[in-house]
Amino acid sequence: MSITADNAKADEVVKDVAPVVKDEPVKKDVKLDDIPYARFKEVNDNLKSLQADFDKAKDDQKKLRDAELEEQGKYKDLLEEKKLELVETKLKADEWDTYQADRRKALIERLPEDDRDLYGALPLDKLEEHCSKSGTIKKVKVDNSDAVSTSGYSAPKEVVDAVKDGSITNNEGQKILEQFRKRLHGS
After folding, report:
1. Closest among 97, 104, 141, 138 to 119, alpha carbons compared
2. pTM, whole model, 2 decimals?
3. pLDDT tens profile 72-95
């Protein structure tokens, strides 16, 4: 064979073997810490798988140890371990119950008073979903009519006294007294 024929075959092999590269636009604001989602998902899936395998192996090892203690007749040691596990589990359960009660109380306080009885019996997850969807916020009714129209005075006598001692002017006093008259006559 000739050298040119060998070069031509080599070029064909290189073309076949060369990886396919896609022309993708280069992003100018790419951060060095960015991780492609596919790689992120792969690593997380592997982590979850390894964690599950580790938990299973840990449980199997614990069962074997318990079986060995039973065979050896060391029931006291086994009983002490089980009591310790029970105490730890109860602590976690109490913490969870406290969290749920506090969370439920906070969510119910966000609801209007009329709806508290209706939605208070819902399971916590449904109550959270309802509150997040409805965006309910506690509505408090405040009667500002007295403060706005009478400048905080609760009786006409207080207005007259305020005018006499000079804390408000005569014109201001007249306007406030007019508000009291309107309220008294319902107009």
Report:
1. 104
2. 0.37
3. 878 888 788 888 888 899 999 999
